[in-house]
Amino acid sequence: MGTLSNARVVPVFDRGRLPVSSLSTVEGNPYAPASTVETRNVVMANYMVRVEIFKADSEEYADLHKALEALGLKRTVQGDNGVLRMPPGTYYGASSLGTYELREKVKTIAAPFSYPADPSVFVSESSDWSGWLRLA
């Protein structure tokens, strides 16, 4: 049996409403004895993020999408009728970062793709949404 230092964090989501709890599992085993499992609450919020980069080509946009998705920001959102596509340059996702920290992280990621001007970045915490979007 491994120790807690070998543990990985597995997020357990409650349909987007927060707080979200994470369980640490030992060596990927969710059935490890209770003495080796640590529980903690992580407050995560949903964010809508809008990014505009200048004079980027399709490869640079693809790299930007991958980098933002790694941050938890996706170009799709789950709707009542399925997965929906966000408008161009708009991302949605959950993060434990605050609005300011997330904005700075997104700007740092987007800056290398935007020339000659810095990217435009808008971040808004979202507790509810409604929209007319196309299926992804």
Question: Can you describe this structure?
Answer:
With 136 residues, the protein is of the alpha+beta class. The chain has helices at 58-70, 99-110, and strands at residues 8-12, 20-25, 39-42, 45-52, 76-79, 82-85, 90-95, 120-126, 134-135. It has 2 domains: 4-42, no CATH class; 45-135, Alpha-Beta Plaits (2-Layer Sandwich), CATH 3.30.70. Helix content is 18%, strand content 34%. Strands 1-2-3 form a 3-stranded antiparallel sheet, with no helix packed on it. Strands 7-4-8 form a 3-stranded antiparallel sheet, covered by helices on one side. A 3-stranded antiparallel sheet has the order 5-6-9, with no helix packed on it. The longest helix has 13 residues, at 58-70. Mean pLDDT is 79; it is low at 1-26 and 32-37.
Briefly summarize what is shown.
This protein has 136 residues and is α+β, with helices and mostly antiparallel strands. The protein has helices at residues 58-70, 99-110; strands spanning 8-12, 20-25, 39-42, 45-52, 76-79, 82-85, 90-95, 120-126, 134-135. The termini are far apart.
